[in-house]
């Protein structure tokens, strides 16, 4: 998160899929710094992110940075990398 590694993120996550659509409900249950905590403190509950799985992750990543986006957090899931 913001260029640092943190251990101990405790969160409950529920996911539901319908075709290519996935909805995630995420509840952080600790004080570890994260984008989830930032969002809750600034906006309360609501839509925190929208995601898609591009065919060429590296190209999409480079294009996002080129357009001025800043990496908040990133990682890898069994399905692939995310940012």
Describe the structure.
The chain contains two helices and four strands; from the N terminus they run E-E-H-H-E-E. 23% of the residues lie in helices and 27% in strands. The longest helix is centred in the C-terminal third of the chain and has 10 residues, at 57-66. The strands form two sheets. Strands 1-2 form a two-stranded antiparallel sheet. Strands 3-4 form a two-stranded antiparallel ribbon. The chain has 83 residues and is of the alpha+beta class.
Q: What is the number of beta strands? A: 4
Profile the largest sheet: 2 strands, antiparallel
Broad structural category:
alpha+beta
Strand content: 25-35%
Principal-axis shape equals globular
Instruction: Calculate the terminal CA-CA distance, rounded to whole Å.
Output: 10 Å
The radius of gyration over CA amounts to 14 Å
Uncertain regions spanning at least 5 consecutive residues? none
Question: Could you state the order of secondary-structure elements as H and E?
Answer: EEHHEE
Overall pLDDT confidence: 89
Instruction: List the total number of helices.
Output: 2
Strand order of the largest sheet: 1-2
Percentage of residues assigned to helices = 10-25%
């Amino acid at each position: 998160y913001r260029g640092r590694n943190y251990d101990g993120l405790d969160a409950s996550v529920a996911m539901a899929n319908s075709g290519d659509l996935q909805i995630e409900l995420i509840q952080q249950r600790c004080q570890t710094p994260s984008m989830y905590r930032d969002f809750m403190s600034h906006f309360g509950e609501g839509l925190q992110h929208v995601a898609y799985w591009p065919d060429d992750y590296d190209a999409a990543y480079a294009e996002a940075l080129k357009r001025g986006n800043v990496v908040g957090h990133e990682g890898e899931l069994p399905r692939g990398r995310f940012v």
